[in-house]
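Pasting as-is:
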Amino acid sequence: MAAPIILCDTAGMTNERWLDCRMHGPKGNIPFTVGGSDVATIFGLSPWTTPLELWMIKMGRAKPQKKLNSNQLTMGHQLEPLAAYWFEQMTGNKVQDDTNLYQHADHPYALANFDRRFTRSTDGKSGILECKSCTYHNASHWANDSYPIYYELQLRFYLAVADVDIGAFAALWGNNPDSDMAFPFLERDQAKEDMIFERLDEWIWSLENDKPPTMSGVAPKLALESLARIYGPSVPGTPTIEIGRKYESKLRRIAVLEEKVAECTAEADRYRKEIAAHSVQIAELMKEHEHGVLETTTDKLLIDFVTKTTRRVDSAELKKKYPTVHADVLRASESRKLHVTVAPL
C-alpha cells in the first residue's frame, strides 16, 4: 500500500463546497466517487438509503433528499468533539484533528474525510477515530465492544484510504461517560478490505456503464420509501403499463394478502365494538375513579379508566378565524401504496 493523496483542506469550507469536493474532487475531475458513508449503502446494508437511490444521485439523475432528521444530524456533528474528548480521557490515546480530504492511492474514486485521528499510547501507532452518537434505544448496538456493520464498513474503508492498521469508535448516547459511552477498537483486515474494494470497483463500473442496481436484498419498507423518493408522485393521465407474466404469482399473492388484511380489519372492528359494549356498565361503576380491581381466588383483574389529554390544532376553527395563517401552514402529505384487484375478463 501507499500513502493517500491529500486533495485539499476542508477547514472553513461551506457545506455546499464540501459536498462538491466529495462528489467530484476539489478540481471537479473525478467522474464518480465513493465516500465512507456510501459503502454500507452500496452493500445494501444502510438503514437509510438504497443502492439504487445512491446510484441515481451519483449519476446526476436524482438529488439528495432533504434529511427529515436534520436537527439530529446537526446534534451528532456538535457532539463529535465531546465524544473525541472522552475517548482521549478514557483510553489514554492522543486525539488529533484532521480536516484534509484524502484520496486512496490505488483507487482514485475512494475519497475520505476523517472525524479525528488518534495515536495509540502503547506503541505510537496512528489510527482513525469515528465519533458516533445515538439514542438509548440503540445503545445495545455498542454492547460488549460490538458495532453496527454499516459503521464497520465505513471505518474499514477509512483505514484503507489512510493506509493505517487500527481504527476506533467513540459512541455516545447519554451524559455519563462511565456508562453511556463505548470505545470499541477495530484492526485492519486485508481479506475484508479486498472484499470491500472488489464490490466498490463493481459499483464504479456500474456507473461508468449505466447499469443501475436492483432492489434485491433491500428491506422492503426502505425499498418502497426509496422508490417513492426517486420517482416522485404518480402522474395523472399516464398510460396503463403492461406487466410481464413472470410477476403474476407476486401480484396474486398481494391480492390475497390484501383480502386477509381487510378481513382482519373487519374482525378487529367487531372486537372493538364488543369491548365497548362490555365496557359501558364497568365505566358506570368507575365514575371519576382512574383505577379499579376485582380479586378472585386465582388472580386479580386490574381496570384502568384514565383520562388522557391530546392537544391538536382545530383545523376548521383555525381556517375560520385565521384563513391566511391556515393556508400558510398547510402541508401536503404524499404517499403511494400498491394495490392489486383481481378483475374478471
